[in-house]
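Tutorial handout. Part one gives the primary structure; part two gives the three-dimensional structure as tokens.
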Amino acid sequence: MIPQEYRLRLNSRHQFVGKKQAENAVIIISTPAPSPRWAIRVSKKIDHRAVVRNKLRRQINFWLLNQVSNLPQNDFLVIVRKKPPTPEALFDLYKDISHALHLI
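Part two.
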């Protein structure tokens, strides 16, 4: 679980408005903030099983937590558009996230 200081709480009706950066597998929406915080959305279109969606969310959270010193000082919402078909493809997803974050 990510520490509360990095957690961005969004309710289901909340519209997150900000600068949008799209990559192959993800969309990142960002707004300025004093420290990095994030939320991750994984749609049922990715997989109908909650176990798979939650595993992907945990993997992205773990990667972001390890990259926290390199992250921009923003609140950002990571929306996953495509499911990585293999564990090796997960690294491509990380590259997409990293590239989108550096463009913001």
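Part three, for discussion. The domain at 4-9+17-103 is CATH 3.30.230.10 (Ribosomal Protein S5; domain 2). The CA atoms of residues 36 and 72 lie 6 Å apart.
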